Amino acid sequence: MPPLAASPSHPVFPLPRARAITDRMKEPLRDSGFDWPALEKPAFDWPVFPPGWVWLTGAGPGDPGLLTLHALNALRQADVVVYDALVEPAILTLAPQATPIYAGKRGGKPSAKQRDISLRLIDLARAGKRVLRLKGGDPFVFGRGGEEAQALVAAGIPIRVIPGITAGIGGLAYAGIPVTHRDINQSVTFVTGHDQTGAATLSLDWHAISRASEVIVIYMGMKHARPIADALLAAGRPAAEPVAVVTTATLPGQTVLETTLGALVADLAASTLTPPAIIVVGRAVLLRQALDWQAMAAGQPPRDTDPLGTHAKAASA
């Protein structure tokens, strides 16, 4: 990975340390003959995947270990896995018996039309296949899962929904950023960085969001960072407000840019970061100074154990 631009006030944190700790964690598994495709489910009354059904399943934010056991059960039974661009390839090895079909949609790149994807799911189910629709994160969180489920139900196709860990929670947790904290926020808002056309979501009431939510998590917002930052600044958020951009969340190549709302656009331009990315706005970003658990596992001390200055208050509560 090329070096990232950094400054003392707005550091970029590539995670070669995350790669190191991930490899170290996997090493004992390799030594003991651990085999992902041979991973077995624990004993339980697992749902049976009937032919002609479509199971819309969340693959989580990337790390295969964040799959749910219901997702593993689905992968083990599927005849076809129709998967999105953000599904980690290692997860597909958990369904060696299934035919993989790519149906990814990425902004600015040639992609299948949503209607065509839905029709393909319907055709496969009508052909008697056990169809696993595998989506990054959670299928119902900015994943078009609701649209596909509606199309399937309208066509008379039976469905099951298996939730997954969404990147706006799991990805930030891997970066050491909790989306809620009693000393910071009693609300968190999740928004998408673009609308159906791929343009910035300026139709959102950014003033209302800014007033109502101490922490804002933005999916797919990197391309439109400038208009989003401008909208939040115009809505009254301070230029000095902490912001983090997390790319390739939960995977060995995870990289985190810590900056401020006022410097976000310039710091992104000076970095080598590329999507997929999650952007989080709010004082929760400061907690990464104390909670960057991947860095600590690699032997680095926390930068500040009390970045909010609330230890004395908490001790007396």
Show the helix and strand layout.
Layout: E1 12-14, H1 16-31, E2 54-58, H2 69-77, E3 80-83, H3 89-92, E4 99-102, H4 114-126, E5 131-135, H5 145-154, E6 159-162, H6 167-174, E7 188-192, H7 206-212, E8 215-219, H8 225-234, E9 242-247, E10 255-260, H9 264-270, E11 277-281, H10 288-291, H11 293-297, H12 311-315
Parallel strand pairs: 2-5, 2-6, 3-4, 3-5, 7-8
Antiparallel strand pairs: 1-10, 8-11, 9-10, 9-11
Give an overview of the whole structure.
This protein has helices spanning 16-31, 69-77, 89-92, 114-126, 145-154, 167-174, 206-212, 225-234, 264-270, 288-291, 293-297, 311-315; strands at residues 12-14, 54-58, 80-83, 99-102, 131-135, 159-162, 188-192, 215-219, 242-247, 255-260, 277-281. The chain is of the alpha/beta class and 317 residues long. The chain has two domains: 49-165, Tetrapyrrole methylase, N-terminal domain (Cobalt-precorrin-4 Transmethylase, domain 1); 168-311, Methyltransferase, Cobalt-precorrin-4 Transmethylase, Domain 2 (2-Layer Sandwich). It has a six-stranded mixed sheet, with helices on both faces. A five-stranded parallel sheet has the order 4-3-5-2-6, sandwiched between helices. A hairpin with a 7-residue loop joins strand 9 and strand 10. Mean pLDDT is 86; it is low at 1-34.
Order of helices and strands: EHEHEHEHEHEHEHEHEEHEHHH
How many DSSP helices? 12
CATH superfamily of the largest domain: Tetrapyrrole methylase, C-terminal domain
Largest sheet descriptor: 6 strands, mixed
Structural class: alpha/beta
| Shape, per Cα inertia axes | globular
**Tell me, what is the CATH class of the largest domain?**
Alpha Beta
Strand ordering within the main sheet: 1-10-9-11-8-7
Low-confidence stretches: 1-34
CATH topology of the largest domain: Methyltransferase, Cobalt-precorrin-4 Transmethylase, Domain 2
Mean pLDDT score: 86
Oligomeric status: single chain
CATH architecture verdict of the largest domain:
2-Layer Sandwich
> N- to C-terminal separation?
46 Å
**Percent of residues in β-strands:** 15-25%
Q: How many domain modules?
A: 2
How many beta-strand elements? 11
